[in-house]
Write the structure tokens for this entry.
Amino acid sequence: MLFIAVFLAVVAIAGGQFPPGPVEDDCMSCICTMESGCNPLDCRMDVGSLSCGYFQIKLPYYQDCGQPRSDLGWKGCSNDLTCAATCVQNYMRRYVGRSGCSPTCQTYAREHNGGPIGCRRSSTLKYWEALKKIPGCGHLV
């Protein structure tokens, strides 16, 4: 099953499936695979609040990313790959420059996992190390 998810993620990269933004397609694909196998998952409880969809987006994250496709709402956007990826791109545009961390995939992944200063939190290193173990993601920096 993981092989199929990785294959689909590679196809997504080749097809330019993600909207443009600071996070490059290969990094976005790896974050998506890490969070959900790049599938539109139902919401689930995670660290005391619900996380939904492809990127396991929480309500405050959706609000911080500018609520793209507000007609879909938080849960609907989270389960629409283009909307969810737009949310991630917007979130990174908003916070990465303020964190003092360089604009690398490691920073994007750790900010996604740990919030606006996630790149500075030691608790997000395990997330980054696990992401790099996903087939096709080990080359990312």
Remarks:
- The chain has seven helices and two strands.
- Residues 81-99 form the longest helix (19 residues).
